[in-house]
Write a structure and sequence with these properties.
4 helices, 115 residues, mainly alpha, single chain
Amino acid sequence: MLAKEQDPNMNFSTLNSETSRALHCMTAHLYRYGSELALLSEIVQDIKGYNTGSHSQLVKYGVRSSESLEFITRSMDQISAHLSSISHFRTELQLKADNILSLVRLSSSQIPAIS
């Protein structure tokens, strides 16, 4: 199917090579995104901890109302849940890209046997 959409002069080996290169790029980006999502999750937890720990002082000095901690905690928990969902989705994408890359490598190694 991909071969039909590509340049008719492109051979199967070149198509596999370009597909492999693109998949390597995708997996590298997905790996980096995983690191960034983990860091962002830690930051959200730090913000939640800071707000929980300093809430009484902030209320004492009139910076926030006494009822605001529940809203802040719920919001941070919701952000954490969204980040977790995104992280699981990223993991699935990375696994699928790795599987496809393995199939491309397998098909590339079998080209001489087909000829």
